[in-house]
Amino acid sequence: MKTTYYNRHGDVIQFELINENEIEMTGHDDSFMRYGYDGDDSTKYDNLVFVDPPGGPFLNTGTDLGRYFDGKISSHFIHKIAIKNKSIIFTTKPNKK
Q: Which residues pair with 88 in a beta bridge?
């Protein structure tokens, strides 16, 4: 299942439900992307706690990605964030706990 989000710069951000616990985000501009991570620099892209592409959306652990799917899915709270190629992969859990 895919959905489209238009950020404040007019970029077309795609969210795709890959499986029950993973959502992939594509279409963002990598050139000025902000990241936040836990840990040292050697593991920073394995321990991301937020991503913020230019124009948004700002997404951090604990955010429910279900809101981007217009109610078609729910309770997909971000548990882990990783970068794979040019995609952002969110591992989700059904609730914040």
A: 25, 83
pTM over 0.85: yes
Q: What total number of domains does the chain contain?
A: 1
pLDDT at residue 95, rounded to an integer: 67
* Residue 4, CA distances (Å) to 13, 42, 43, 67 in order: 6, 33, 30, 12
All residues at 6 or more sequence positions from 7 whose CB lies less than 8 Å from its CB, including other chains? 13, 53, 55, 56, 57
pLDDT in tens, 25-81: 999 888 888 999 887 666 667 789 999 999 999 999 999 998 888 878 778 999 999
Q: 61: domain range?
A: 2-93
* CA pair distance 16, 90, nearest whole angstrom: 10
C-beta separation of 49 from 61 below 8 A: yes
26, 94 contact by CB (below 8 A): no
Mean pLDDT score, 14-34: 92
